[in-house]
Structure to design on (312 residues):
């Protein structure tokens, strides 16, 4: 199927706007979507001028005022529960995530402070080329259920209260538990049909607490994880549009053969502790969280071999 044919797809795009000053950044990202889409915007208070701004960008946008419950997750439920998923091929979920403090915990040893986390989350809409690359991924592999930036896609989770709430939610809705990854920050592109499982759950925006930024581990954070769980529980996977090992290999091109020959042997043997040890001199160790994540090593090794035949 050609990209022209792929662009016959239709997406539902949900944007939750809490920080109105960040909408311009979201708007720029939306302009990189190369398929037809319906835009649903939620916000917590009426703003006539801002409404005009949204409609000037996309005149048929659906704008809904919601209670300030569940961060971006509650408003997402308020939209998903009301639409016919059979009308869409993909769901694209976005929100105006605020800047974070300098001491915020790292994900994959990547600094998430300031606007970095939001930039990573939005990077899957960085350009029309990046968006088309994701369409091609979905088309070439029927098991890919969701795409997002690899630096914010994780199976690591120290929010034990959120996991406890998630487990209770899964039991209540008779959803099988399984190993999963989730997008930390909840911006992604996914197959629309997967969210029928979410529609069948007894969950609505009124179930979420009013937002209190000083409280973590509440229902919203549990459902953030469930949005990854629902992909894996239905036999699909989350596939980064660019694997962090591929980023590593691109960086390695800059260095002498003996350096990346050594790293290639280590990667091939899946010795992630050693990767962390030897990658320090070339300043890429922050891509790895030692021993806890498993990456697509075989595909990454094949990529490196294709780029550098001498390694075969």
């Amino acid at each position: 199927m050609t990209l022209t044919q792929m662009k016959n797809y239709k997406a539902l795009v949900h944007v939750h706007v809490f920080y109105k000053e960040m909408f311009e950044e979201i708007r720029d990202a939306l302009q990189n979507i190369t398929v037809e889409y319906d835009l649903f915007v939620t916000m917590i208070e009426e703003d006539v001028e801002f409404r005009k701004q949204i409609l000037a960008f996309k005149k048929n946008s659906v704008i809904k005022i919601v209670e300030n419950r569940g961060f971006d997750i509650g408003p997402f439920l308020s939209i998903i529960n009301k639409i016919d998923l059979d009308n869409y091929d993909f769901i694209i979920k976005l929100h105006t995530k605020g800047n974070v403090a300098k001491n915020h915990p790292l994900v994959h040893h990547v600094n998430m402070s300031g606007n970095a986390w939001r930039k990573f989350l939005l990077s899957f809409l960085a350009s029309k080329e990046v968006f088309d690359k994701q369409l091609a991924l979905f088309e070439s592999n029927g098991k890919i259920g969701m795409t997002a930036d690899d630096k914010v896609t994780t199976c690591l989770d120290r929010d034990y209260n959120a996991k406890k709430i998630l487990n209770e939610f899964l039991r209540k809705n008779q959803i099988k538990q399984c190993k999963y990854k989730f997008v930390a920050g909840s911006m992604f592109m996914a197959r629309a049909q997967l969210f029928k499982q979410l529609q069948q759950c007894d969950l609505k925006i009124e179930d979420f607490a009013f937002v209190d930024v000083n409280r973590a581990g509440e229902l919203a954070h549990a459902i953030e994880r469930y949005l990854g769980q629902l992909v894996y529980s239905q036999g699909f996977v989350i596939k980064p549009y660019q694997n962090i090992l591929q980023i590593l290999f691109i960086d390695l091109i800059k260095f002498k053969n003996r350096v990346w020959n050594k790293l290639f042997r280590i990667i091939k043997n899946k010795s992630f502790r050693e990767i962390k040890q030897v990658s320090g001199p070339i300043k890429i160790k922050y891509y790895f969280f030692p021993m806890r994540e498993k990456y697509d090593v075989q595909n990454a090794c094949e990529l490196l071999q294709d780029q550098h035949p001498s390694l075969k």
